[in-house]
Amino acid sequence: MTRNIKELSPEALGAWLAAEGQDPYRARQILQWIYQKGAESFAAMSDLPNALRDRLAAAFTFGGPRVVRLARAEDSTRKFLLALADGAQIESVLIPAELGERLTLCISSQVGCGMGCAFCATATLGLQRGLAAHEIVDQVLMARRALGDAARSGEPQSTITNIVFMGMGEPLHNYAEVVRAIGILTADWGMGFSPRRITVSTVGLVPQMKRLLEDTKVNLAVSLSATTDDVRGKLMPVNRKYPLAALLSACRELPLPRRKRITFEYVMLAGRNDSLDDARRLGKLLRGIPSKVNLIPFNPFPGSGFASTPRAGIEAFRAALLRQGVHGTIRESRGRDIQAACGQLAAAEPSAA
Ligand code: SAH
What we know:
Layout lengths: L2 E2 L5 H10 L6 H11 L13 H10 E2 L4 E7 L5 E6 L5 E8 L6 E4 L3 E3 L14 E4 L2 H20 L9 E4 L9 H12 L11 E5 L3 H10 L3 E5 L5 H7 L2 H4 L2 H10 L8 E7 L7 H10 L5 E7 L13 H13 L4 E3 L23
Helix pairs in contact: 1-2, 4-5, 10-11
The structure holds S-adenosyl-L-homocysteine (SAH).
The site of S-adenosyl-L-homocysteine (SAH) has 17 residues, from strand 10 and strand 12.
């Protein structure tokens, strides 16, 4: 099978060019076409000699995902349903900040997910497979392309400013490919994003959390969502492997660069994890960890069996946290009407083949 050009590292591409008797500096040109100018074919690489374009086209594919559906929510959040080369489907979500300036792309790291969180729609799919680094990066290329089109038709905000690994899948359960993708997203020969604009969210895979902070400079978010092992174990099976004490002591020891904080995500589930006792326990658990808490109202999906804590309860929870010196924010649910909000991604669309 011919390889996708986007699977090659700069070194591998350089080696291929050398073997073809080409100048190695062509590698940089090709990478710029792919990651900076958003080329979609070798033919488009207009400053390469024709013969080289033909050689490339014979040796490699230039595949990207196909947009099966692009849905737009009332709040102008956009959800991409993408079909990969093998037909697997994933979703990415483009989320404009309510007051402009920021435009966040939420990307997937796996097809489905194997973590089994009771409150998450993606979990119902099970793990189908991990995404390759280029399939992760393609989500960004794809969204950027769609934004280019939107800008041409007069939409204001058209540059992606932040990337979050908060779509389908557990990024740290696909560690090598996620780190490779982060490399491409942040490289100067790649997409040139600052790692400070990238956040990886995890259910709490302790060994990989430590490695991530050593291997990259991205931000870390940890999905906590409960304050006792009993409750967390029921909501998030991963807690049986890495219970709260292990998770939080690892957080305490992470090599966080100065002034950096860990974000703890906490899905608010009525009557399950939202009491004022929970707020007090949470304050205690986070003592000594540079942290902020992001309270996420539960987003419903068919058959979930959970309900969100009402707004007033979330406010009270937040106030209780603050009394203990823990700063909490409430995540405004975006794109709910198109099932694009946290925990609603399940690629439910029938394939439009
Ligand atoms: N697997 C990683 C990355 C996904 S991030 C992780 O869990 O961190 C998705 C975030 O949405 C997580 O914080 C998760 O706890 C939260 N979430 C999952 N299902 C949800 C739902 N139905 N409503 C609101 N938030 C949900």
